[in-house]
Amino acid sequence: MPRRISDDLIARICDENDIIDYVSQYVQLKKTGRDYSGLCPFHHEKTPSFHVSQEKQLFHCFGCGASGNLVQFVMRTENLDFVDSLKFLADRAGIIIPEDDVSLNDENHAKKKKLLAMNKHAARFFYNCLKDSSIGEKGRQYFIKRKISWKTVTVYGLGFAPDSRDMLIKHLTSKDFTVDEIVEGGLAVRREGRVYDKFRNRVMFPIIDVRGNVIGFGGRIMDDKKEVNGYKIPKYLNSPETLVFDKGKNLFSLNLAKNAKESDVILCEGYMDVISVYQAGIKNIVATLGTAITENQAKLMMRYAGEILICYDSDEAGTKAALRAIDIISSVGGRSRVIRLKNAKDPDEYINKNGVEKFKEAVKNAMPSTEFKISLIKKQYDTTTADGKILFVDEAAKILAGIKDAVEVDAYITKIADDTGISRDAVLGKYREKTSKNTYRRIPLKTEYQKKNERKEREIVREEKITPGLIAAEKRLLALISQSKKLYRIAEKCIKADDFSTPTYRKLAKLIYESYSHDNTPEPAIILNSFSGDELAEASEVFYNLEVYNGDEATVKELLYTITLEKLDIRINSETDAVSLAELFKEREKVLEEKNMWEE
Length: 600
Fold this sequence. Notes:
Radius of gyration: 28 Å
CATH superfamily of the largest domain: DNA primase, catalytic core, N-terminal domain
């Protein structure tokens, strides 16, 4: 094994192994709200206290305190150390960890950082060009025509690529990027010995991953001309695949959709569809990146939502794409429904014609995928005739043969019988005929994993002179700032990482603060790799916080006051000098006055 595995490689290994898929081999999990629960595999229990978050990729037992990410779960269940657990998961995902050449990891890590930095500069360049009164007029008019507000432009970081051969190249070389790096990053192309900007005279859509990194771009022409001077012009032009950009493993706007915290996610085909729907107030929406949906994209959506609502174009190509999406989602264990938009090609057109409330109604009435498939088959046959009914039932039975849920199959057998007037027994017989040709073996899930040596009960040793109220307030504060850079900025002005009370909280705060200082979003599953033992349990409890807060900014300020007052009370209770005690009381009164004024 290499002496050091880069953070990027660790992140990739974690990204490509879903915690629900793996834990389900040991625990029979049941969906409870946004999370999953089951009997803890690390201690005996009759009532489930073991929870798994697909969104955060964490597990936590409220009974024995076992906590962590997927790597730590593997360490426990497979009795492996950290590095071997990473290798185990890498093998599972088909990822090769270099055995000897550590420098290869370091070299790729450095290249990725350079590419991400370059993409960030390019995104700012495109945005500033759009904002520029002279350069970006065409781009601004396009978005105005499409009814996209400047606020939405800012949220998505939309931009404009000028009709220039090398304006972006000149800008990036001025930032110390080489021409070779710009070409390798997909922002320029070489033709006949010359180098040109790849994106020219297009409105630009930065593609941002769930960590907030700009990993690529999509560019759209501002009219529907397909040729210029005999040269074919693609409507959309996307970045090529690079070290940081894989079209099949990312989704447009997932960085925003994941924060919507909805039980489902809407999948569209185009960037403008997503942006229009988001602007209308529906934020749990994403799009593929110019290609058909992949298994990796389906798994990625399933991390943040229990159900995927497919909202593709209503034409023949869109219908075929929806059918493919249903099968892909089903193949990785996901659930899906299909949104049908009448008298409109896509969500953007539908909202502009009918308004957002009608679109919300269409979302609410999304058709279950099996019903959608059967309805399409039914349109192909005249079910008022005997022959039409026979052919329809035969085709519908093929669809039911691929469904693993016995209750769902039973419900549709009854529905098909009612719709056609054919007896239920006859439809059931046709279904059994199809399943006998397509048999499969189900692998039963283990209900509980018995470990030989049960983990001893957790004992969290608190430092002296720390009150439960202070610990609770710091825990809540860390939970909140780990989810929001805005809240972090409020807190960081008042409390530094070293000001937290326990060694674990200080270490955790430092990692969260460092993530934000490098323009990254803290990732719980990655951060927890820095902890072990009781520290791991204490840190996990911060991220695996089931409390719901209202008015986040107000809550942060309230917690900051609570922490200040708790610390003052600790000092007051331990102070023996009368003069110092008087000063502390004055300081406490001043803080209380400020708190009361703020609350008013």
